[in-house]
Write a structure and sequence with these properties.
With about 80 residues, this protein is an alpha+beta fold. About 15% of the residues lie in helices and about 20% in strands.
Length: about 80
């Protein structure tokens, strides 16, 4: 599995002055997506709706609204 491309704009285009530690979204070679965000499993797990769950190896990650909105145009429909 490899990163194929960034989805959206780089952190510097969203106002990051360093671009080194900012939320980001990537498309992977297997068609899945990877995100860089703030780990928030402990804070949000109890807030999940009754029909949502996570496996032990999964984490809840927060990505800024601007990051996801700026990525929207690059996310394929299918």
């Amino acid at each position: 599995m490899k990163i194929v491309r960034r989805i959206g704009v780089p952190p510097s285009a969203r106002g990051s002055t360093t671009g080194s530690t900012c939320p980001d979204v990537f498309e992977l070679s297997d068609g899945n997506f990877a995100v860089i965000g703030t780990e928030a499993t402990d804070a949000l797990e109890r807030e999940l709706p009754a029909d949502a769950a996570r496996a032990d190896y999964e984490r809840i990650v927060v990505v800024s609204r601007e990051t996801l909105i700026r990525a929207k145009a690059d996310i394929p429909d299918v």
